[in-house]
Design a protein that fits this description.
six-stranded parallel β-sheet, Tumour Suppressor Smad4, 18 strands, alpha/beta, six-stranded antiparallel β-sheet, Rossmann fold, 19% helix
């Protein structure tokens, strides 16, 4: 028998009035159907649901509805912190590769999903850590999309020494480098000329940003080895950014290590769409 979900979390995009209004209506709709409703404690306003902090929220819910775009879904994945809870992504905007359910189809699709009648796409995550000297990591975080090292607007080209499983790859002289999951291959990596990877693949993209040498192209590597990146230059501001949500300034000699995470993100599929339908719609393939 399919699993029936009873404890439903809702995470709307906080700066989007339509998403907040949809969350308010959804709270009432779920409550009328006997579901327990939970929201992040940072959500302000009048909602028919219980407010919880991130840690308590992920320990309580068994299903999560996200109202927004891919950025909101990335935030939601960080709230879950690796707990395998299905995420039902409702697209409140125009460009969303992960939020597959249009708001016009939200209620009938959600009714089916809450009764356990849905399929999920398991998305790979990466574990990234920044080291300075021999000490513990300055930051360690899981990412769903990408790990980005990039220079500031006025900084000169960065020298980034990249290794794969301890073996040297190359010294990139570039504006930066992107380490992306298949999910993240349609984000910043795509803008930097990287390939699109089918989201169920186990692979990682290394995409240099504006490399000084034209022969240094994006490459795809297996995810079961450690990727190391050492900043060798001191030419100005260079930053590490994780999933576009948090960042830290880097210094010469800093080392970033990236490995595949043991955790996965479970995204509820839209049964009326496949991945190539999404690409055609979002990237406007076939149109002049």
């Amino acid at each position: 028998m399919p699993e029936r979900h009873q404890r439903v979390g809702i995470i709307p995009r906080k700066s989007h009035p339509a998403a907040l209004e949809a969350a308010r209506q959804l709270c009432s709709w779920l409550g009328a159907r006997g579901r327990e409703v939970y929201l992040e404690d940072s959500i302000e306003g009048d909602y028919a649901g219980t407010r919880l902090g991130a840690a308590e929220l992920r320990q309580t819910i068994d299903f999560l509805v996200v109202l927004g775009g891919d950025g909101t879904l990335i935030h939601a994945a960080s709230v879950l912190a690796g707990k395998p809870i299905p995420i039902f992504g409702v697209n409140m905007g125009s460009l969303g590769f992960m939020t597959e359910i249009p708001v016009s189809e939200m209620l009938p699709a959600l009714e089916e999903a809450l009764e356990g009648r849905y399929a999920v796409s398991e998305r790979m995550k990466l574990d990234a850590a920044l080291y300075r000297g021999d000490g513990p990591p300055l930051v360690r975080q899981q990412v769903l999309n990408d790990v980005v090292i990039s220079k500031g607007a006025l900084a000169r080209i960065a020298d980034l020494d990249v290794s794969f499983d301890g073996k040297p790859v190359t010294l990139y002289k570039a504006d930066g480098i992107i380490v992306a999951t298949p999910t993240g291959s349609t984000a910043y990596s795509l803008s930097a000329g990287g390939p699109i990877l089918y989201p169920s693949l186990d692979a990682v993209v290394l995409a240099p940003i504006c490399p000084h040498t034209l022969t240094q192209r994006p490459i795809v590597v297996p995810p079961d080895r450690a990727i190391g990146i050492v900043l060798q230059s001191d030419n100005g501001e260079v930053f590490l950014t994780l999933d576009g949500q948090s960042g830290l300034a880097m210094e010469r000699g800093d080392r970033v290590e990236v490995v595949r995470s043991a955790d996965r993100v479970l995204l509820v599929n839209n049964p009326r769409l496949d991945y190539f339908s999404i690409l055609r719609a979002k990237l406007r393939w076939g149109l002049r």
